User: Fold this.
Amino acid sequence: MSGDGRTFGRYVTSAALTAGLALGGLVLPVVPLPVQAASPVSPEIESVRLTRVDPAARAEPSADDPPVGHAHDESGDAAPRATERSTGTEATRPETAGPDAADPAPPGHLAALAARTATRDFLVAGVTWDGATGETVTDVALRVREAGRWSAWQELGVEEAQVPGSRAGTEPFVTSGADAVQARAATVSGRPPSGMRVDVIDPGSSPADRNVGAAAGPAASAAAATGWEPKPPVVSRRMWGADESLGSPWPETSGTLKAIYVHHTAGTNTYSSDQSAAIVRGIHAYHTRSNGWPDIGYQFLVDRYGRVFEGRREAQLHNPIGAQAGGYNTGTIGVSAMGNFVTAEPTAALVRGLERVLAWKSFEYGVHPTQTTRLRTGQGTSTAKAAPGTVVTVPTILGHRHTNRTACPGDRLNARLPALRSAVHDRVLAEYRRHGAVRLPASPRPHAVSSLRTPVQWRPETAFAWDAVRGAVRYEVLRRSGHFTSTRPYDPYWYEFASTARTATTVYTPPGENAVYGVRAVMANGRRSPVRVITTTTRDVLHDDWDVYGWQRISRPGYYNGHAYRTTAAGQDIKVYAARNITRVHVMAPTGRGWGRVAVYVGGTRYGVLDLSSATHRDQRVFQVDLGGARSGRVVLRSLDSGKEVRVSGIGVVRP
Assistant:
């Protein structure tokens, strides 16, 4: 029931009560009846093992029935166009081979089939397995018993979050109230992955489920657009009864918003208005307790009554990275339609709810609803159609199936996307005409960073500072980084690692890491400013990562890190292996009268010579060798002069 409907219902109840009392001779003032507040609700989870093919279940005539919705259905929107397949910078010329030219999904063989199992009553179910398994899961299907009748098999797509230590799993399966479950799974080898199980979730009930409210956001301004002008009423996490003890804040956030994914949930379309909040709680419990993610996977959910639910923590206020599309979770958000739209049509209310939340976020972040954008395929994904590192061109509003092997968001909802994009475009255009471009909060202005902190941070800890921003109540310090041996220079997202009310903070950078540091202001209403980069820097390479065979270690308090490596023989090497995409080499070295020279090689090519001879002895001097572009390979420092002193105490490799 909509918010207006609930208000009307309360009014009718109050009016009827007043009339009854008046007829009895007592007249009372008309007052609305109190609405019970939401409170956190702890879910209950029951597990059914899915580790073998049950012989009795296999003998059932319906065991092999085809599922509703196939996990590798790629009908609907055209597949994304690949524009680049390397891991360097984005290419400017498209390639003829698209993601559909990549290896197709491998065929699967039945690996596990559970018996029909009676369970506790539940609203949400899903299948998970050990994330580190060597088995490739190709298909998972589920059926449930509702009101004494078994449903057809329904295919479940695989969801990926790339969370260390998490369990792999399927999208959640929604019921209107089931009490038994059966699952089957296929793998490439025909062997079940370790630890596979079905979790059924009873999300509990709250008195507030019948009166789910909507949280207000920061006030929109008529004078200058804030981005919140088209914001729909949103049911906050507090209002749907999120148990925040189940997870933790998700520290990764996208710096920009490039595209919005439309999802659906598997299962039923017949849940009641009173069950929507409980279903969201069940999905939250499935993602946090079954999958082992820190939070719910989607930024927003929309029920069949058109109500918008806040999914991920603070998704209303900025862009915490979600789990909406494996390989494309950065720079995007996910809105999940609560229902199965493989064969059923979405309700008009649900489509309007989608339209409103998509228009809100498109307006706020300048996303053009009817245009395309480019996304880079991430590493560690098994469902993406494109190979890791490929840049694909996709619509800014797209279904999950557009980039991933899945039926989501179902044929019927997927067919609505062109019209949905047009409707969202009209809403966004109207807001631009009414308010102009969005003005985000001002970003902090960082203070200058010294040469000993960038491009090489020669100490583990260093302090950064910035100017205060009017109206800010605190500042978030963010980092994106990558080890010098990693394929990409930096993670493609920001990691929030510090929050302070002050305008300065001290940060620790791990050895061998290249890092970009940024800061953003947080206003009293929770809105964030764009991230302003403080600096790009790198920590020096640990001595443990040097190959120093033939060099002598010399300890001295004045040396960098308290020691250096020494040789007087020509042709002695210090080696650092497998550096990737580095542009400069910085060397910290003592100097002295009559000392020798050191050549610097990367990938077998010599790029410079360091002369360590100096009229006066110096414990520390920083030498720099420019490579003339990004290079990869072994870094070698080689002594050139026989009988002359050479000492090296620090090596830093700089990436773009």
DSSP finds six helices and 37 strands in the chain.
